[in-house]
Design goal:
Shape: globular
Strand content: 15-25%
Oligomer: single chain
Number of domains: 1
Largest sheet: 4 strands, parallel
CATH topology: Rossmann fold
Number of strands: 4
CATH architecture: 3-Layer(aba) Sandwich
CATH superfamily: Response regulator
Number of helices: 5
Distance between the termini: 8 Å
Length: 103
């Protein structure tokens, strides 16, 4: 099963795009099967998060994704450094996403 990943930040232009590129790089390294990585602003992200398997966003916006996390439909990954390959890789492995979405 291929994963759909959401990357959200405040405005949905610069940071979320850079986060998307980092997530794609990490997913490739972990040999994950990914069908889509979408970047957007927080407003779109919080309203569409349950349409994705994984939602990545800055840690300071974690409360905005509480409903999505509580739904059980999406794995929410709050990040301290959204551009850190190491942190994203660690969070994906901790959540078992590398195994769940292995190619």
């Amino acid at each position: 099963m291929a994963a759909k990943i959401l990357c959200a930040c405040a405005n949905g232009s610069g940071t979320s795009l850079m986060m998307q590129l980092t997530v794609e790089r990490v997913a490739k390294k972990l040999n994950m099967d990914i069908s889509q990585v979408h970047h957007c602003a927080l407003a779109e992200g919080t309203s569409t998060a349950t349409n994705f398997d994984i939602a990545c966003f800055p840690r300071n916006f974690e409360n905005m994704f509480k409903a999505a996390a509580d739904s059980g439909k999406v794995v929410c990954i709050p990040l301290k450094n959204v551009l850190s390959d190491k942190e994203i890789e660690e969070k994906f492995v901790e959540a078992g996403l590398d195994k769940k979405f292995a190619k």
